[in-house]
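tokens incoming
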């Protein structure tokens, strides 16, 4: 079975948000810090999707690549086997319409022609998990998609963006920071920061409005076989329940009179008496 590294497009390689705002002539633009950013412009989820399902092929095919897209892909190719244990790269993207699917194919053909036959589109981002197995890795900027991919047997990395910064809880040492060497000075939303290293200082893309860079975070599913923890029952609650149960057990008396057994439970001033036949 081929080992495949699947790459999301929108938000990782493609600047969909800027394209959407340009198309709808949004003048007063707010920093995008949440997934459903349409809410900031008075659109609920249904209205927002209506605003994108009607977009023509030309919209999708002419979206700008994100500043780091070429260098990111080059880094992923170099570390394909070493870092991901993969044999090939495939783009795996959510397409909201047939025009969207065609437009995304044209976009890949234009910007990454060597991967022109490596695009898979799905009608719902949740369907990405259908490609999850022990030989597959996904890089995506939607936390829920990454989690579902891992649950279905794959491995996933969250591509950190301002709208997913609070989703993951990885330790800092687990975060994989990509050393982007080029900076687009014309895009003042991004700047470069240097990672202290006396031998080979590196720089990464960094979103100015957040303390969050263009990095990958390994997404793991917490191995939790404790059903109490799974349902949010704290240790303090368990101790409290245990104390109550202990008090009940300590106030139980059993009497055998002839062929009958009497069980009495004393709870404060209330007494329950059962006769076992």
């Amino acid at each position: 079975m081929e080992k495949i590294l699947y790459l999301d497009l929108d938000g990782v390689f493609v600047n969909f948000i800027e394209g959407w705002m340009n198309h709808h002539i949004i003048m007063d633009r707010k920093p995008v810090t949440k997934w459903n950013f349409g809410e900031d412009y008075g659109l609920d989820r249904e209205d927002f999707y209506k605003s994108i399902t009607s977009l023509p092929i030309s919209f999708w095919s002419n979206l700008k690549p994100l500043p780091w897209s070429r260098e990111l892909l080059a880094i992923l190719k170099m570390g394909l086997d070493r870092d991901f244990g993969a044999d090939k790269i495939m783009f795996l993207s959510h397409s909201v319409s047939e025009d969207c699917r065609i437009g995304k194919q044209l976009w890949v053909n234009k910007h990454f022609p060597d991967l022109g036959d490596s695009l898979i589109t799905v009608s719902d981002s949740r369907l990405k998990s259908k490609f999850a197995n022990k030989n597959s890795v996904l890089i995506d900027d939607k936390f829920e998609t990454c989690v579902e991919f891992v649950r279905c047997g794959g491995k996933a990395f969250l591509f950190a963006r301002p709208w997913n910064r609070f989703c993951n809880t990885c330790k800092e040492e687990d975060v994989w920071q990509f050393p982007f060497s080029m900076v687009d000075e014309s895009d003042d939303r991004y700047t470069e920061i240097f990672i202290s290293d006396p031998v080979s200082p590196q720089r990464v893309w960094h979103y100015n409005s957040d303390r969050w860079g263009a990095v990958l975070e390994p997404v793991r599913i917490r191995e939790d076989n404790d059903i109490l923890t799974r349902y949010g029952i704290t240790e303090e609650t368990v101790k409290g329940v245990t104390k109550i149960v202990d008090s009940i057990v300590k106030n139980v008396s059993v009497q055998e009179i002839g062929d009958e057994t009497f069980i009495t439970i004393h709870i404060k001033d209330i007494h329950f008496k059962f006769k076992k036949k």
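note: Residues 4-219 form a domain with the Rossmann fold fold (CATH 3.40.50).
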